[in-house]
Design goal:
This protein is α/β, with parallel strands linked by helices. It folds into two domains: 135 residues, Quinolinate phosphoribosyl transferase, N-terminal domain (Aldehyde Oxidoreductase, domain 3), CATH 3.90.1170.20; 109 residues, Aldolase class I (TIM Barrel, Alpha-Beta Barrel), CATH 3.20.20. It is built from eleven helices and twelve strands. It has a six-stranded parallel beta sheet. Strand 10, helix 10 and strand 11 form a beta-alpha-beta unit. Helix 1 packs across helix 3, helix 3 packs antiparallel against helix 4 and helix 4 crosses helix 5. The longest helix is centred in the middle third of the chain and has 31 residues. The protein starts with 23 loop residues before the first helix and ends in a 26-residue tail after the last strand.
């Protein structure tokens, strides 16, 4: 089924340096859960219609341009469905592809390919969309010191994959979750009824005393007058949340290299360049994962798929030309 899609943002076609995928067992766990969700008792259509020994070849093709991410997830979906399926990837994660480019070549039992295709494509489409959008933000901030990072506003259960996609697009990752860094936000301080600069400094010094020296401590502020008591506590990163451009620049000057400066809030493609120009070190962008559009990738069987199968002609199904449209 041909779909009409929005025009993706214009991004550079320079490949991202080789990006390691997450550990395979983490990818397998996510993909296995997705496969179980889609076919908890098997693929009823294939069980009724497709002989299990019918062999076929297929390709995954780009129906619009973008940055590739998700090859290991595609491989996992196919392998976990039927270990006899083989897949080859002409392009690596982090590379640019054009409309019509072949992104994967697949061969093996047709039933397994059909069962795995939607899960494989769902993940690769979303991850490639994140990588492509990230690259657009990275390009917009080019020439400045600012790094584009993700946030914890990820799809539940998919964080390890979505953070991989951000890296494939040339971005960086923020903390993985609540367990690997201290991040003191306004709600934390509100619960402690912190009132006045001395109390704020004391609260943050208490935080520092209660965690190992290796733990990174970040504090969110929403006013310039909070900076001095936060700096007095010796924190590692200060997040300037929803600051306008003038206040961001003033904050960078006041901090003066004593902590990393992160900008957050109201970050869009049309605002990120101005934010980066203020001299901040980090720009965190929730939209990379919470507002992304999946790219359009399609899986199609080759016209002569099924020939040479041990199942014989009677096991064939689908359109006469062997083409399989996604639903």
């Amino acid at each position: 089924m041909t779909q009409t899609t929005a025009t993706p943002p214009t991004v550079s076609t320079t490949p991202t340096p080789t990006i390691a995928s997450p550990p395979q067992h983490l990818i397998d766990a996510v993909v296995a859960a997705a496969l179980a969700e889609d076919a908890p008792w098997g693929d009823m259509t294939c069980q009724a219609l497709i002989h299990p020994d019918l062999l076929a070849t297929a390709t995954v093709t780009a129906r619009e341009p973008g940055i590739l991410c998700g090859t290991a997830a595609i491989e996992a979906a196919l392998r976990l469905t039927d270990a006899r399926i083989r897949v080859d990837f002409p392009q690596a994660d982090g590379t640019w592809f054009d409309t019509g480019d072949v992104l994967a070549r697949i061969s093996g039992p047709a039933a397994g390919i059909l069962t795995a295709e939607r899960t494989a494509l769902n993940i690769a489409q979303r991850l490639s969309g994140i990588a492509t959008l990230t690259r657009a933000y990275v390009d917009a901030a080019a020439g400045t010191r600012a790094r584009i990072t993700d946030t914890r506003k990820t799809t539940p259960g998919l964080r390890v994959l979505e953070r991989w996609a951000v890296r494939c697009g040339g971005g960086s990752n923020h903390r993985s979750g609540l367990s690997d860094a201290v991040m003191v936000k306004d709600n934390h301080l509100a619960l402690l009824a912190v009132d006045g600069p001395e109390a704020l400094t004391e609260a943050l010094l208490t935080v520092r005393s209660r965690v190992p020296h290796t733990v990174h401590v970040e504090v969110e502020v929403d006013r310039l007058d909070q900076l001095h008591p936060v700096l007095a506590a010796g924190v590692d990163t200060i997040m300037l949340d929803n600051f306008d451009l003038d206040d961001l620049a003033a904050g960078v000057r006041l901090i003066g290299g004593r902590a990393l400066v992160e900008a957050s809030g109201n970050v869009r493609l049309d605002t990120v360049a101005g934010i980066a120009a203020t001299g901040v070190d980090i720009i965190s962008v929730g939209a990379l994962t919470h507002s992304v559009r999946s790219l359009d990738l399609g899986l199609d069987f080759d016209p002569d798929s099924g020939s040479g199968s041990a199942a014989g002609p009677e096991a064939r199904s689908g359109r006469p030309d062997g083409h399989h449209d996604l639903s």
